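pasting for ref
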Amino acid sequence: MELMGTEEVCDRVEAAFNLLAKKWTGLIINALLAGELYFCELEKAIPALSARVLALRMRELEEEEVVVRAVSAGSPVRVSYALTEKGRALGPVIREIVAWAHSWSEPAAGPDALRRAWQTTTAS
């Protein structure tokens, strides 16, 4: 087996990080690890993600052959997405990131956390 040159490896690694580093991409792949989902199900799985950005990310992932898109005939037309073999190969990586986040990241400060913090400071 011939080893690839450092420059070729770096280009491949850089391309992979550029794809996965785009906002929402990891969450989309994580949602699809459970199986095929319709576009509307992906919207519900990631509520903070707008439909416009979701469509853009799905096109990018389809172009990179990470997901496959299926359109069902009928009325209304329904579009579903599933991970390809290439996409499913990201499963262990995504699961490790999820585990790392649970171990090392602080919970996001949502409205309830901000409200509790404000109540704590004003109660004193």
